[in-house]
Amino acid sequence: IRSFPPRASCSPYTVIAMADEAAQDPEIPEVSVIVVAALYKFFAFEEYKGFKEEIQKLCDKNGVKGSLLLAAEGINGTIAGPRRGVDKVVTRIRALEGVGDGLSYKESLMNPDDRPDGAFMRMRVRLKKEIVTMGLPGIDPNKRVGTYVEPRNWNELITRSDVTLVDARNDYEIDIGSFKGAIDPKTKSFREFPRWVEANLDASKHKSVAMFCTGGIRCEKASSLLLEKGFENVYHLKGGILNYLKNVPEEKSTWTGECFVFDKRVAVDHKLQVGSYESCMACGRPLADRDKKHSKFEEGVSCARCYDETTENQKSRFRQRARQKLQLPQHQTNKKKKRDNAPTSHVSGPTSKGNASMCAAKEGNQNPSKRSKVEINSPEEIKANKS
Questions:
Q1: Judging by beta carbons within 10 Å of its beta carbon (0-12, 13-18, 19+), is residue 304 exposed, middle or buried?
Q2: Can 213 be counted among the known catalytic residues?
Q3: Nearest-angstrom CA–CA distance, 200 and 213
Q4: Which of 199, 257, 310, 379 is deepest in the core (most CB within 10 A)?
Q5: Rounded Cα gap, residues 332 and 166, in angstroms
Q6: Among candidates 89, 131, 128, which has minimal Cα distance to 107?
Q7: 3-state SS track over the chain
Q8: Cα(229)–Cα(223) distance, rounded to whole angstroms?
Q9: What's the longest Cα–Cα distance across the chain?
Q10: Distance of alpha carbon 379 from alpha carbon 227, whole angstroms
Q11: Cis omega before residue 5 (within 30°)?
């Protein structure tokens, strides 16, 4: 999400304005940027199964990639592509009955030079039981959620002595950044959050609880859960961390580190520019430069966090995959990318469960260390189900 070409006189917000202008005026060449859009909406979506094929075709036709999850409780996803393509897809989603202007939507720009392959490898639309998996029936944000807190009011709330601040994300996300003083539940997936609440929070003691996550969707369910359990004052950051970073000046911020995101950027800094982390090719967890100096790190094969989670046979297959990627001539690499983008291209191998959509959107439902026999996809797709 950098201004490009990078220069002091052209901020990311200037580029957004340029892209918007280009989309509206056919005589202005479209700015060569990738628009990354994170979106969700809880609503009664009775026809979600019939919408799958339509929205998949619309995305494919307009060069939009990413992940969308559809369920009876709503829609959730992160998509990326050219301005006109993203706009067409979002317009169609807003046209769904029950969505409209209520769609939670956050947009940023990505410099193609930062990630030449784009933000995602392919477009996947999937049918799910939940658009963010908590695994508890009866928790319905359409009926009841906590109090939304605007970014401008967040600092004042979380510095109150009577407020318990909880980071509702997973451990691998919290490792690279969080708000000062926030509690880390140390969960591997969002499914573990209800058990953590049961063991660590008490409605009679914790009178006011404030929560946050990447884009806001997990806190919709988390706040609904706490209200069901009798907590009185439950707050959550409107639009999540990304909305806070966009609207609160860095000099006034209580955020430290970078924010994990569910695409090839891996993380963004306070200016919403591509951060300093890479993604482990084996498990999808974020890697800093210091992590690559660890004795258990091997490019494309393992990192210190996942080394003990895979067998030697799996590591051998990862090495073979890494060698093939390095040895392929450019024209063969391009052909392989085309095959990878085809929805029917499948290769068996050990990767994270649900890796095809590590974004879905947005916020992950899956533990990156769990493995099943599925496609070998890119790290950002391994993440798709995690937030």
A1: middle
A2: yes
A3: 19
A4: 379
A5: 48
A6: 89
A7: CCCCCCECCECHHHHHHHHHHHHHCCCCCCCCCEEEEEEEEECCCCCHHHHHHHHHHHHHHCCCEEEEEEECCEEEEEEEECHHHHHHHHHHHHCCCCCHHHCEEEEEEECCCCCCCCCCCCEEEEECCCCCCCCCCCCCCCCCCCEEECHHHHHHHHCCCCEEEEECCCHHHHCCEEECCCECCCCCCHHHHHHHHHHHCCCCCCCEEEEECCCCHHHHHHHHHHHHCCCCEEEEECCHHHHHHHHCCHHHCCEEECEECCCCCCEECCCCCECCCEECCCCCCEECHHHHHCCCCECCCECCCCHHHCCHHHHHHHHHHHHHHHHCCHHHHHHHHHHHHCCCCCCCEEEECCHHHCCECECECCCCCCEEEECCCCHHHHCCCEC
A8: 10
A9: 64
A10: 35
A11: yes
Q: Which two tokens stand for residue 332?
A: 């063969």
What are the residues facing 259 on neighbouring strands?
A: 268
pLDDT tens for each residue of the chain, 387 residues long:
333 333 233 333 333 333 444 444 443 334 478 899 999 999 999 999 999 999 999 999 999 999 999 999 999 999 999 999 999 999 999 999 999 999 999 988 887 776 666 788 899 999 999 999 999 988 999 899 999 999 999 999 999 999 999 999 999 999 999 999 999 999 999 999 999 999 999 999 999 999 999 999 999 999 999 999 999 999 999 999 999 999 999 999 999 999 999 888 899 999 998 899 999 988 999 999 999 999 999 999 999 999 999 999 999 999 998 888 766 554 444 444 444 444 433 333 333 333 333 444 445 444 444 433 333 344 444 444 444
Total Cβ atoms within 10 A of residue 242: 23
- Per the residue annotation, which of 59, 213, 219, 280 is the catalytic one? 213
Which residues sit opposite 164 in a β-bridge? Answer: 209
CA 323 to chain centre: 29
Q: Which of 157, 333, 351 is closest to 236 using CA atoms?
A: 157
In this structure, what token pair is assigned to residue 130? 């939940």
**Pair 65, 118: CB distance under 8 Å:** yes
Q: CA dihedral defined by 82, 88, 89, 95, rounded to 10 degrees? A: 160
